[in-house]
Structures are given as structure tokens and as C-alpha cells.
Amino acid sequence: MNQHPIWKYIDDNADRLRALSDNVWAVPETCYGEQKSVALHIEELEAQGFRVEKEAAGIPTAVIGEAGEGGPVIGFLGEYDALAELSQVADLPEQQALETGANGHGCGHNMLGSAAMLAAIALKNWLEETGTPGRVRYYGCPAEEGGSAKSFMVKRGAFKDCDIAITWHPGSIATVVTGSSLAAARVDFEFFGKASHASASPDLGRSALDAVELMNVGVNYMREHMSDRARIHYAYIDAGGISPNVVQAYANARYVVREPSVKETVKLIDRVVNVAKGAALMTETEMKWRLVTISAEVIANTPLCQAMEKNLHMLGAPDFTDVDVAYAKRFQRCGRCQLGCPYSAIVGCKLRHWNTLSHMANGGAGEKRACIKGHGACCDGYGDDWCGCDHQPRAARCRMGGFENTRRRRGVCQCIAR
């Protein structure tokens, strides 16, 4: 592995941040309910000497830690939310919940936040010891899974003076990808009918559950007439109860609608709403819909991608041991905003895929430890690049400005790895 002068600061705190990852993994909390998880992050930020803003942007489970003076503002984005009903015994290659129906870290956000903070700590310490001007800012961002907290943080000014935001995500390969992602919206559909006995007086009932099912059928037929890149998913929030002999008077479904752009997503939502209206007409029920969240597509920023790629190559491949490979083979056998500032991301190398049993069970594996340390090292070298020269910030902002002019909005210039 090549060496960068900042990487020794990674080694100094790697064990502490691995422990943070383990502790967050042990208390999985979802969408705006990350009270214990954010408390663990606040505790570590304070121990490391950051100036801490709790309840950042008015969000109870968001936090911002800052250190340093002058120079550019280098942000590191961390997350720590889990997923519902993905509880899993650590390091066990078969499905076994720690607690039935409980939450679990199926997307690795326990590592995402910890490694991002490790990078922020190392860059902070390097700036202090070298006397280099610059501010390091750690953004603790809750509710990535379905809550779009970063969008609210942007709207409330949390990123207005941030020069660059750096993040990562656990994944199956270590790479920087210059492509985009789909814009995504979550939409709730409620149907209101009339309850009745399904055998004695079915003619008096109007089934809200029938309405949801007809809506789902209609949307599924509509798929043939959508763009190839569009995606629609749905799940029942409330199917009206568990009694089949009752005509269900209420039902609720949540849809996720995705298209390459927000503009296209809004148009597709309109079509889905029309299908829902038709289902309500067919069943003589009432329908109400509500846009829960909407997140913009990712816009690639080539200068940022190139700078991250350079540091990734300098870092080299993760140092997986034979024990790590054997661990991964056990599992192989069983087998988602705009920031308003330049943004770049890297995907960290793990030997598995998102939201799978193997990902949920990854509580303390050696490959996780290599992933956390490797991400921190790569992103720190990247942050150092921004503190030490002017041409990269200029190039990135120039690229971002082009999107601002053509799209007539403050574009997010993102380099996302998926």
C-alpha cells in the first residue's frame, strides 16, 4: 500500500471508531428515531475536541461537529439509521433475529457514519499539527432510509458555506462511479370505504382493500408504458385488519416512484395518482394521497470524481486476510438529495451486497474493519487535496455552475458510487 502523510492520523483513532461502529450496530434505530445512535456520535465528537451543534437544522437526531479555522470548509457526511425488521445475530450465516420484528443495520450505516467521522478526525488532527488553514465539518445525517433528512438540512442552511462534502457507502467493490442515480419519491395512498359483514351484508360494504389491490394491478399494467429506467415499488402500510369476514373500511399503501429526473418523477406520480383515482371510482371508495418525500437525482462532478479516484488508487486494495475471505465465503454459500455544494462519494469494499442477510450479520468482521479504515484513508487524502491547492475547488465549482445555469436551480454536483 502506498503512503500518504495524513494516513497515520487514521491509524491513531481507527480502534475507537471501529468501536463506535459496533456500538451503533448494537442499537439499530430507524428514520428520525436515532436517539441512541446520535448520542454515541455526539460523545465521540466531543471527546475528539469538535465544536458540536446538537439538533442541527432543527432535527433532533442530526448533529454537526466542526473544528479548525479559516480556509475551505471540508464536510464529511455520516449516517447511522437502520432498517425496520432486519434484526440479525452478528456473524451468523443464516437468518436468525436477535429480536423478532426488531430493526437491523442491513445497509451498513453503522460503518458509514463511523468511517466518515474517522476521516474527519484525522483531517482535523493533521490541520492542527501542520498549521494548515481549513475547517473540518462532520455532518451526522439521520433518516437516509426514507426520511430525506439531508434535503431538510440543505433547506435550513446547513450546507450553505460548505465547499465540498465527502461520503462513502459500504459495497461489494471499491470504486468511484461517475454515473447518476434516479430521483425518487415516496407517496402514500389511503382509501376509505364502508365496513360490513362479508357474508351477511356484503352489498352494504365498500372495500378499501379492494381499491388498493385494483390500484396495484393498474400500476403493474402501466409498467409496459413507462420508460425503461423508471421504477415503481409498493408495500402495504395497513391492509385493513386481519378479519377476512369483514369488508375492510380502510387501507393504506406506500409507493416509491423513480425516474432519471425530478421532473420526470413528478409526471410519473401524476399517472400513478390517476390509477388510484380509477381504483377509487371502481370500488366507490374515497382516495387521498400524500407526497411523503422526494429526492433529486445525482449529478456527476468529473473533477471531484477524478480527485477521489487518484486517492483510491494511491490507497490500493483492501488488506483482506485469509480469515476475512473464509468469513465471506460462509455467507456466499447462503447467499437513495441535493446538498447545494460539490459532493463526492466512494463505495467501500466489502464482500457482500446491500440489504442481504450477509450485510445485516456483519457486526464485527475483519472485512468491516478494513472497510472503515480504508474509507477514512481515501477520503482524508482527498480532503487534504482540497486544503492544499486551488485548482480542484475551481474546477468542481465550474462544473457545478454549468448545471446551475442550464437547470436554473442550485444543482447538486455529486459523484456517487453504487
Question: Strand share of the residues?
Answer: 15-25%
Query: Runs with pLDDT <50, length 5+?
Result: 335-339, 349-355, 402-418
How widely separated are the two ends?
24 Å
Shape: elongated
Give the neighbour order of strands across the main sheet. Answer: 1-2-4-3-5-12-13
Total strands: the figure is 13
Q: Tell me the major beta sheet.
A: 7 strands, mixed
Q: How many individual helices?
A: 11
Helix/strand/pairing class, anyone? alpha/beta
Radius of gyration: 23 Å
Average predicted confidence as pLDDT: 82
**N-to-C series of helices and strands:** HHEEEHEHEEEHEEEHEHHEHHHE
Helix content: 25-40%
Describe the structure using short key phrases.
418 residues, 7-stranded mixed β-sheet, disordered C terminus, 11 helices, alpha/beta
Question: What can you tell me about this protein's structure?
Answer:
It is built from 11 helices and 13 strands. It is an alpha/beta fold and 418 residues long. The strands form 3 sheets. A 7-stranded mixed β-sheet has the order 1-2-4-3-5-12-13, sandwiched between helices. It has a 4-stranded antiparallel β-sheet with strand order 8-10-6-11. The model is unreliable at 335-339, 349-355 and 402-418 (pLDDT under 50). The protein has helices spanning 8-25, 35-47, 109-130, 149-155, 208-222, 262-283, 302-315, 322-332, 357-360, 366-388, 391-407; strands spanning 51-54, 63-69, 73-79, 134-141, 164-171, 183-192, 196-197, 231-238, 246-247, 250-259, 286-295, 343-349, 414-415.
Topology of this protein?
Elements: H1 8-25, H2 35-47, E1 51-54, E2 63-69, E3 73-79, H3 109-130, E4 134-141, H4 149-155, E5 164-171, E6 183-192, E7 196-197, H5 208-222, E8 231-238, E9 246-247, E10 250-259, H6 262-283, E11 286-295, H7 302-315, H8 322-332, E12 343-349, H9 357-360, H10 366-388, H11 391-407, E13 414-415
Parallel strand pairs: 3-4, 3-5, 5-12, 12-13
Antiparallel strand pairs: 1-2, 2-4, 6-10, 6-11, 7-9, 8-10
Helix pairs in contact: 1-3, 1-10, 3-10, 5-6, 7-10, 7-11
